[in-house]
Amino acid sequence: MTESTKYLLSEDRLPKAWYNLAADLPVPLPPPLNPGTLKPLVADDLAPIFPRAVIEQEMSAERWIDIPEPVREVYRLWRPSPLIRARRLERALDTPAHIYFKYEGVSPAGSHKPNTSVPQAFYNQQEGVKKLATETGAGQWGCSLAFAGSLFGLEVQVFMVKVSFNQKPYRRALMETYGATCIPSPSPLTEAGRAILARDPESNGSLGIAISEAVEVAIAHDDTKYALGSVLNHVCLHQTVIGEEALLQMEMAGDEPDVVIACTGGGSNFAGLAFPYIREKIKGRSIRIVGVEPHSCPTLTKGRYAYDFGDTAKLTPLMKMHTLGATFMPPGSHSGGLRYHGMSPMVSHVKELGLMEARSYHQTECFAAALQFARNEGIVPAPESSHAVKAAIDEALLAKAEGKARTILFNLSGHGHFDMQAYTDYLAGKLKDRVFDDSLLDEALADLPVID
């Protein structure tokens, strides 16, 4: 009998509710603070930038939140996504480990990001919003919100980190194909952008700067709201369809993961796969959860757990999270989606509670792992996802060295079809590992807000 490679759920098994980890945390999540009063945030504080339904989800402690049927209807375009056993990679590594990956690159936009862009667009359209402003790093989120906006009749304006805007023209083209406007950030269109350009006309930008520009636009226009692709609770919530499906698919495979792995930038794809498994860990299941980040932007491994702003211009609420400092400018890299100074408050809290591990890698070793994966499994990973691939290979080789079987599950959060310049640079020996400057980190952390 032929061994299965893919484990596929039928559409009628698509999750009907998102899972909210806040309901099961042994210690409650520290609340976000109003930066003016330093008091816990209330719903009205978020009303200028988010629709009411999203605000309610952001603050909810309910364990399950129903997925609206119009959202599930769109999800059916690509969900449930496949769980794949990487048998060819296992043989190449000569490992006793079983390696599985949840493949989110099958979405129309090519990544996990539509899991949240679709509900966010739906809720905004339901409340009469006409336009969404957002930021994007490598472009996966911008493409995903552009896709969702096209389905729900919303105008979308995307501020794309300038280094990625220049590196990834085809992601810009995809956004424009879906009808969105893509602007390099920092830009002269906002006060935040103009201030950065006045200090550094050649600035490559950062997610923190792009967030400032998008939030500024949303606050200034009554018909416009802000949409965020990572970090906040409601985004992590929407992504949990990944892990809920994976639980069912691993059961189909007759296997259980010993270790669950995902890359971490703002925390959304990690949360999507890991949070349902962290629920199981809290219940007593023995399982390791690993978040993997770039060595050039090591938020979880070198950042401080403190209240900080989510953006460079300090327009957002204060959040308790692992942070490199809102003014920290990460070195340029091809993993633009992981170049964020902060980490999701929920993911940060999970790390503080000891429910997960974190590690960092240089980009060249991640690209080496991505090539090995592509040449065995056929899928070219997004540079961000290559960090999870590298960690999964390391775990499989450790199992080989120890002579112990181990089941590994990782999230392949997107394909790299629009990132081929990065692969071209790597293959030509042009891709270099960026040196992390601790003095710049110290300078940024010295500017953290003082909370009594």
Automatic annotation (TrEMBL):
Domain Tryptophan synthase beta chain-like PALP residues, every copy: 77-414
GO molecular function annotations of the record: L-serine hydro-lyase (adding indole, L-tryptophan-forming) activity; pyridoxal phosphate binding; tryptophan synthase activity
Cofactor(s) required, per the database record: pyridoxal 5'-phosphate
Assembly: Tetramer of two alpha and two beta chains.
Entry keywords, A to Z: Amino-acid biosynthesis, Aromatic amino acid biosynthesis, Lyase, Pyridoxal phosphate, Tryptophan biosynthesis
Family the UniProt entry places it in: Belongs to the TrpB family.
Enzyme class name: lyase
Reactions catalysed, as given in the entry: (1S,2R)-1-C-(indol-3-yl)glycerol 3-phosphate + L-serine = D-glyceraldehyde 3-phosphate + L-tryptophan + H2O
Gene3D superfamilies the record matches: 3.40.50.1100
Listed pathway(s): Amino-acid biosynthesis; L-tryptophan biosynthesis; L-tryptophan from chorismate: step 5/5
Annotated organism of origin: Rhodospirillum rubrum (strain ATCC 11170 / ATH 1.1.1 / DSM 467 / LMG 4362 / NCIMB 8255 / S1)
Modified sites of kind N6-(pyridoxal phosphate)lysine: K113
Source domain of life: Bacteria
Role: The beta subunit is responsible for the synthesis of L-tryptophan from indole and L-serine.
Protein name: Tryptophan synthase beta chain
EC number: 4.2.1.20
CDD domains, per database record: Trp-synth_B (cd06446)
GO cellular component term, pick one: cytoplasm
InterPro entries listed in its UniProt record: Trp_synth_b-like, Trp_synth_b_CS, Trp_synth_beta, Trp_synth_beta/beta-like, TrpB-like_PALP, TrpB-like_PALP_sf
